[in-house]
Design a protein that fits this description.
The chain contains six helices and two strands. By secondary structure, it is mostly helical.
């Protein structure tokens, strides 16, 4: 029986993307963690609601690809800090929706320029064509990851259903 294939982490794309994501998230967190007492999940909720107000917590989880528990904790902390507000949906009274409070909107307006400046500095190492290619490749890989998710889950955890 041949030995199982060896995984080389430094060449394994999912690992490399995770490392890059963690590096970028940690660097950006420095722009708001100490100054605003804000965690990465809390910022992601605020950023999502700043872009698209009126989402439910489940919508935020789907939009940000964050774990529902992490979103729930972040939402609870943001509600306590009065950075977001929760109301009932006008269209479906069983559904609650989230919006930035005045304090949350102010925070969003303060943090956004810093994170956009970081993105600009990060991407400055790439030429215009490389940035466009990166954007296309990330979109393509994201679509493919969505397509593969059910297959991988079924294969790795066949008894999970």
């Amino acid at each position: 029986m041949p030995p199982p294939p060896r995984l080389q982490l430094d060449r394994f794309v999912p690992y490399r993307l995770s490392v890059l994501s963690n590096l970028v998230s940690s660097a950006i967190a420095g722009a708001y963690a100490e100054r605003f007492a804000l965690t990465i999940p809390e910022w992601r909720v605020i950023a999502a609601l700043g872009e698209q107000p009126g989402m439910s917590a489940a919508d935020v989880a789907a939009r940000t690809a964050m774990d529902k528990v992490a979103v729930s904790r972040a939402v609870a902390a943001l509600l306590r800090a009065r950075r977001i507000v929760r109301t009932q949906s006008r269209h479906d009274r069983r559904r609650s929706v989230l919006r930035l409070s005045r304090a949350g909107a102010t925070l969003y307006a303060q943090v956004t320029p810093d994170v956009l400046e970081y993105e600009t500095a990060l991407l400055a190492t790439l030429g215009r064509g490389e940035r466009q290619a990166l954007d296309r490749l990330l979109a393509k890989l994201t679509r493919r990851a969505h397509e593969l998710s059910p297959c991988i889950i079924a294969r790795l955890a066949p008894n999970a259903r």
